[in-house]
Design a protein that fits this description.
Layout lengths: L1 H13 L6 E4 L5 E7 L2 E4 L1 H4 L2 H7 L16 H4 L11 H21 L4 H24 L1 H11 L12
Antiparallel strand pairs: 1-2, 2-3
Length: 160
């Protein structure tokens, strides 16, 4: 009885505007179009493979400076050698570039709280690296801080 009722409903809908029609896309995939209030609505999103849907949903960053490049001439002064990719001074410089780009982003998008959290984490990481570099090599620390235009923290007195 249920199948007969569905078939009679499909027969009634076949003569009205609510009948789904098969269609093909440019890629050759078959999808369906349904007519709602006289306008056809494509349901191709569900007909596409998952990999294609994932590619179409990717967001491309407008500003590529979120990850600065090591080959920039501005980074050359912080490298200790030609193949340097991880010295403290270079890491501080790279973090500073990322912090600058996130700060510019947050000026426009004030309520981007996830970005605010990421920025605070980067600031903490840069602070820890600066402390380490200051303990290890004071001369390199002052060179790095002046080269980046950062403020040097004043010596804090211990409570004890």
């Amino acid at each position: 009885p249920r199948m007969a009722m569905m078939m009679s409903t499909a027969a009634v809908c076949a003569h009205t505007l609510c009948a789904p029609r098969a269609s093909t896309t440019s890629s050759g995939a078959t999808g369906f179009k349904s007519v709602v209030r006289g306008t056809s609505v494509s349901l191709q999103v569900s007909a596409r493979p998952v990999a294609q849907r994932a590619l179409s949903m990717q967001v491309v960053a407008a500003n590529k400076m979120s990850r600065p490049n090591l080959t920039d001439e501005s980074m050359a002064q912080f490298k200790t050698s030609a193949n340097d990719s991880g010295s403290s001074s270079l890491q501080i410089a790279l973090l500073t570039k990322r912090i600058e780009s996130l700060t510019a982003h947050l000026i426009i998008n004030k309520k981007d709280y996830a970005c605010q959290r990421g920025l605070k984490m980067l600031l903490g990481q840069r602070s820890r690296l600066s402390k380490y570099l200051k303990k290890r090599d004071m001369e390199l620390y002052t060179k790095t801080v002046t080269g980046l235009g950062l403020r040097q923290k004043a010596e804090s007195k211990s409570k004890y």
